[in-house]
Specification:
100 residues; alpha+beta; Alpha-Beta Plaits; four-stranded antiparallel sheet; 35% helix; flat
């Protein structure tokens, strides 16, 4: 079964609110088996627009990735973040097919 991923790009607009979000988001991530593959770090914008931070979370399946986002635990984290960040978030299914 292919894994699922959250790809998130964000700009923190209120550090206190974003810290409150980070303090509680772990409950949802743990429940749904999330693992950070990218959490900040250096980057180079080559095309398009960039944000301050990039995050990639891996889940055991696409279904787990969607369920985590829709969970009451993650709703609590969203409420804690409030308007503390501007972000883009997509949930995508992984690929288990042949490679070049």
């Amino acid at each position: 079964m292919a894994k699922g991923y959250w790809i998130v790009r964000l700009d923190v607009t209120d550090q206190v609110k974003y810290d409150a979000y980070r303090a509680v988001n772990g409950a949802a991530f743990k429940k749904y088996g999330a693992r950070f593959l990218v959490r900040g770090g250096p980057f180079e914008k080559k095309l398009g627009t960039a944000r301050q931070h990039n995050v990639v979370l891996e889940f055991p399946s696409y279904e787990d990735a969607v369920a985590c986002y829709e969970s009451p635990e993650y709703a609590e984290a969203i409420a804690a973040r409030d308007d503390g960040a501007e972000l883009d978030l997509v949930i995508v299914g992984g690929y288990d097919g042949p490679q070049p």
